[in-house]
Amino acid sequence: MDETMKQFQVGLIELETEAEHLLLARHQLVENDRVRNGNREALTALRKRARTTKTSVPSPFESIMKDIGGPESRPLVKEVCTTCGNHDSNERTWMMFPGTDLFARIPFHAAHTILETDQAQLDFDAKRLQSFVKEKSFLISEKGALADTISPGVLKSLVTLSDKTK
């Protein structure tokens, strides 16, 4: 094979590998968004059940100031959960754990705490994947004239291309 053809082949292989990584990252980003939306819906349902919103529960400082005139035996700082509010945090709530088909009745406070920590982790992963997709897209476009003239459909077909024996 000619040296130019070998370089062209190596360039196509590198481009195909980068495009495959890009498509996998985009697919993971879509799956991540699906799970994030499910968590967001579950948190909204729990807030409706507790009759709170993100801003409806007073801050711990407001609770302290309201209770200053009370008896001295109460604790100085009163923890107020922004999701639970005045709702009974020990009330049992059904929850399906992520990645399993297991349902369990756990305390209300524990259920929304698990969902909120999962949501924070998913937000972090989404930002990481978005930056990865941006980096791979830039890398593919930097590959040269070939990468700039290939449409996304052709690029996808290059990634899914397989050899068939006759």
Describe the protein in words.
With 166 residues, the chain is mainly α. It has helices spanning 3-50, 60-66, 108-142, 145-149, 152-160; strands at residues 92-96, 103-107. It has a two-stranded antiparallel sheet with strand order 1-2. Strand 1 (92-96) and strand 2 (103-107) form a beta hairpin. Helix 1 runs antiparallel to helix 3 (108-142) and helix 1 packs across helix 5 (152-160). It is elongated, with a radius of gyration of 26 Å.
Give me some keywords for this one.
166 residues; mainly alpha; two-stranded antiparallel sheet; elongated; 63% helix; 2 strands; 6% strand; single chain
Quick summary:
The protein has 166 residues and is mostly helical. It has five helices and two strands.
Give the biggest beta sheet.
Answer: 2 strands, antiparallel
- Any low-confidence stretches, pLDDT <50, length ≥5? none
Give the assembly state of these chains: single chain
Q: Largest sheet, order of strands side by side?
A: 1-2
Distance between the termini: 23 Å
What's the shape?
Answer: elongated
Q: Can you give the helix content as a percent range?
A: 55-70%
Strand content: 5-15%
Structural class: mainly alpha
What integer value in Å does the Rg equal?
A: 26 Å
**Count of strand segments:** 2
Order of helices and strands: HHEEHHH
- Given the structure, what is the number of helices? 5
Arithmetic mean of pLDDT: 77
